[in-house]
Amino acid sequence: KQRSGLWSCTVVCVCAALSAFAAKTNAYVVDPAVSYYTQALRGAARSRPGVASSRGFLRLARIHYQAVLLRRRRDFARASQLYGRAIDLQSSGKLVCNEEVPNPVALACSSLNLALTEKARNRWHSARRVFQDGAEQVQQLIRREFHVWVDANHELRFDVAAEAGHIHYQLDQALKWLATLLTSWALLETAQGRSQIARRLVQRAASLDSTKAALMRWKMLSPADNNLGGKQVESRPEAIQSYRSERCFEGISA
What 8-state DSSP symbol labels residue 192? Predict the structure, then answer.
């Protein structure tokens, strides 16, 4: 009886140890799509230990992961389609993941990656349009979810005071991502010789994220580097794009 009892105790202990080891092993098994997307969000995703990812976050993570694999294979056309799908799902409200990351951040991340993919395809006008649409939509989301907007003097205005600490953090992340979107757009404009527009974009970005202020020292943004003594001559399509840029500024500050 003693041997039987000792054997039973041993079996129970071994089973418990194996169960604990299995649980610990599973805890370290991370979905590569979730891991990649979390890193791509640059610290904006909330850590929720022991809580499963929401369906919206998982779907976005898998779309972005599939897209980046296509980009690594230089299949930019199919990658653009995936990023476009992510943006459509977010813009239509069919996909939300605000349990893990603010919706404006998720949209800004998708817009940035689509614009950069279009740039890699040498589709400059398409990339500019993505930046413009992305900046407008992200700002609209920020005002809708956080009741915050930027006036004509680059000052933040609050319709409603944010009380909870996590709201402050989410808003900060949303503004930083909008600033990142604007500075990436500015880089595109400098590559096209449109430093005046680029300078305004960086000024707007610096008002949202103080770490972007250092970019104002870019030599390419200096008025002395503008064409024709600071006057830029634009073709009709470029003039239309400039008008859209101005409208975007008005939309951000409205």
Answer: T
Give the pLDDT score at 167: 67
pLDDT digits (tens, 9 = 90+) for 187-228: 999 998 898 999 999 999 998 999 998 888 877 776 655 543
Cβ atoms within 10 Å of 126's Cβ, excluding its own: 16
| CA 156 – CA 148 distance, rounded (Å) | 7
| Per-residue pLDDT band at 29 (split at 50, 70, 90) | low
Average pLDDT, the chain: 79
Secondary structure of 67-124 in HEC code, one letter for each residue? HHHHHHCCCHHHHHHHHHHHHHHHHCCCCCCCCCCCHHHHHHHHHHHHHHHHHHCCCH
Tokens of 102: 């603010």
Tokens of 210: 């103080």
Look-up of token digits 């000792």: 6
Which pTM value belongs to this model?
A: 0.76
Q: Which residues are within 8 A (CB) of 117 and not within 5 positions of it... i.e. 6 or more apart?
A: 67, 71, 76, 79, 80, 83
**Beta-carbon-side half-sphere exposure of residue 85 (alpha carbons within 13 Å):** 14
Beta bridge partners of 150: 156
Nearest to 65 by CA among 31, 21, 103: 31
- Phi first, then psi, for residue 160 (nearest 5°) are -135, 135
Using one digit for the tens of pLDDT, what is the confidence trace for 142-183?
999 888 887 777 777 877 665 555 568 889 999 999 999 999
